């Protein structure tokens, strides 16, 4: 990998097309043309290979314990006790399957999801999908901005709006520190987040939630009361994020997998095991936060101050839940873990933004510029809301951002399901019938609950907004037209047939063929010759083989 001096001399905007002449030619398989310090997986049947695959799943799982998850979990427990635990269970199982598909797409084809979208869809569709993906990255960054601002407020009594401004610099400092070793940085963040998880698990013992109610909440779906559907959508959006699909399919390219049928199957299996372990930890953390919040706020002997906190619970007030374990240190330690969670999640968001831009537009930006752009777009609404409405309104903005992620999820999920179900793209590694049924069922459930919430919320807004009859009619027409466009866009992605056939990369292949209906433009959609500068820009582990673990 290039040294720091060499990296600093690179242009800030890099187009892969301009560098095609530096690759090994259009006939070179994509994986073999990666000129970075990869972890090389040997062609041998050994469980020790699992250690070489560990990394991408844990990096992706950080997004499942970010400030957005903390906020939605706290409000779910405070308002509905254990009734929404089933959403966390379904979302975690769905996340495991979906993230495994994203990893499989990258392993089998050697290209990540955004690159497949660019090769497959027309320019107009591709541009719209890119805009939606960028909006998802920004929506994911808003909870990180506000969570970090809350943490600074708890630690140093800095006003929330000032903390929002400071977050623009804090993440840039962490990106600067990565040159000294991203593994050390991630390890520190993991320790801090694990610390708060331990505190919630211990508090779980003190709060003693009713076990039968917890089990019922996990396995009996119900949505009762005002706002339950909206909060359920927020939980889904906070758990299954669209930008994570782009991120995971790209991160797996940091491993040089044996290009045999056995090697690909082993890589897919080990990536699923790693993802299952990482997401299980995230699942337990989310369950413990909801259970603690529900048990404490549902208690009959709360003080008036705690009752007030529970009625309007957000990240800035949540530290009182840990008083039994940490005493007066509860707010400080919670703030440190919240700060660590927000910053680590922002780093993954920056990487996802890199891959989204490179994949859809064939353009790559240096990480600090990419982070500054995304962070600026996230800071603006966060700053306005925190100044006008204070910490309570900022907490509500986190819920809204999570809902946006849920509404945008189909525009990343549907292409992923279409590509991984295509034999012309995946060969024998396509989804099984059972996986196809489950994943399309998950996608249908998300679309149905999103549509139901949009319709019911819009109807309530029309009936109770005090507008004149004429204004209500026109508002209704434009509102339902927007819903029709949303549904039509999803149906277009679902029923559009794949028109590009990308054969899986196997050992001995001398080409990566992309077959289109128009052979005259076949070369335009080909990604087989792209240099992997998007991968080399990441601070990946140093090159080693699984034999080093013996």
CATH topology: Amino acid/polyamine transporter I
Largest sheet: 2 strands, antiparallel
CATH class: Mainly Alpha
Mean pLDDT: 76
Number of helices: 22
**Global geometry:** globular
List the uncertain runs: 1-37, 508-550
The CA-CA distance between the termini, in Å, is 25 Å
CATH homology-level superfamily: Amino acid/polyamine transporter I
The proportion of residues in beta strands is under 5%
Lateral arrangement of strands in the main beta sheet: 1-4
Question: What is the H-and-E element order?
Answer: HEEHHHHHHHHHHHEHHHHEHHHHHEEH
- Strand tally: 6
* Oligomerization: single chain
Kindly name the structural category. mainly alpha
Describe the structure.
Its main location: membrane. It is a multi-pass membrane protein. Belongs to the NRAMP (TC 2.A.55) family. The structure is a single chain. Helix content is 68%, strand content 3%. Strands 1-4 form a two-stranded antiparallel sheet. Strands 2-3 form a two-stranded parallel sheet. A two-stranded antiparallel sheet has the order 5-6. The protein contains 22 helices and six strands. The chain is globular and about 65 Å long. The N terminus and C terminus are likely disordered. With 550 residues, the chain is mainly α. It has one domain: Amino acid/polyamine transporter I, CATH 1.20.1740.10. Helix 6 runs antiparallel to helix 7 and helix 7 packs across helix 8.
């Amino acid at each position: 990998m290039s040294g720091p001096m060499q990296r600093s001399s690179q242009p800030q905007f890099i187009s892969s097309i301009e560098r095609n002449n530096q690759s090994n030619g259009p006939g070179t398989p994509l994986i073999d043309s990666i000129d970075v310090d990869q972890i090389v997986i040997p062609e041998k049947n050994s469980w020790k290979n699992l250690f070489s695959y560990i990394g991408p799943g844990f990096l992706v799982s950080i997004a499942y314990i970010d400030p957005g998850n903390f906020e939605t979990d706290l409000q779910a427990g405070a308002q509905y006790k254990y009734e929404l635990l089933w959403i966390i269970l379904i979302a975690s199982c769905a996340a495991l399957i979906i993230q495994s598909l994203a990893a499989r797409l990258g392993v089998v084809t050697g290209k990540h999801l955004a690159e497949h979208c660019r090769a497959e869809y027309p320019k107009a569709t591709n541009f719209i999908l890119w805009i939606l993906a960028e909006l998802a990255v920004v929506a994911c960054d808003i909870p990180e901005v506000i969570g970090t601002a809350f943490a600074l407020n708890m630690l140093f009594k800095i006003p929330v709006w000032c903390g929002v401004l400071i977050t623009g610099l804090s993440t840039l400092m962490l990106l600067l520190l990565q040159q000294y070793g991203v593994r050390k940085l991630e390890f520190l963040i993991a320790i801090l987040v694990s610390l708060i998880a331990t505190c919630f698990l211990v508090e779980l013992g003190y709060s003693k939630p009713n076990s039968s109610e917890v089990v019922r909440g996990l396995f009996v779906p119900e949505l009762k009361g005002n706002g339950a559907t909206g909060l359920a959508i927020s939980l889904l959006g906070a758990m299954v994020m669209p930008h994570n699909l782009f991120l995971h399919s790209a991160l797996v390219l940091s491993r040089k997998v044996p290009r045999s049928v056995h090697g690909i199957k082993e890589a897919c299996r080990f990536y699923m095991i790693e993802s299952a372990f990482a997401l299980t930890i995230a699942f337990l953390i989310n369950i413990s936060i909801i259970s603690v919040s529900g048990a404490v706020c549902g208690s009959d002997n709360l003080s008036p101050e705690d009752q007030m906190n529970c009625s309007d619970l957000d990240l800035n007030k949540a530290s009182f839940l840990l008083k039994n374990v940490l005493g007066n240190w509860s707010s400080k330690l919670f703030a440190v873990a919240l700060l660590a969670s927000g910053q680590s999640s922002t780093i993954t968001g920056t990487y996802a933004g890199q891959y989204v831009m490179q994949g859809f537009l064939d353009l790559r930006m240096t990480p600090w510029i990419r982070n500054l752009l995304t962070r600026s777009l996230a800071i603006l609404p966060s700053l306005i809301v925190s100044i006008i409405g204070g910490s309570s309104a900022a907490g509500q903005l986190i819920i809204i951002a999570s809902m946006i992620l849920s509404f945008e999820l189909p525009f990343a999920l549907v292409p992923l399901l279409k590509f991984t179900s295509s034999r012309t793209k995946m060969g024998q590694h396509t989804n099984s019938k059972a996986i196809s049924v489950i994943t399309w069922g998950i996608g249908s459930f998300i679309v149905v609950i999103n549509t139901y919430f949009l319709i019911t919320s819009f109807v309530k807004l029309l009936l109770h907004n005090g507008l004149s009859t004429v204004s209500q009619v026109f508002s209704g027409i434009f509102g339902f037209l927007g819903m029709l466009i949303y549904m039509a866009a999803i149906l277009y992605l679902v029923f559009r047939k794949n028109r590009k056939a990308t054969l899986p990369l196997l050992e001995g292949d001398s080409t990566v063929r992309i077959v289109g209906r128009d052979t005259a433009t076949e070369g335009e959609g080909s990604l087989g010759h792209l240099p992997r500068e998007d991968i080399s820009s990441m601070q990946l582990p140093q090159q080693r083989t699984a034999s080093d673990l013996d």
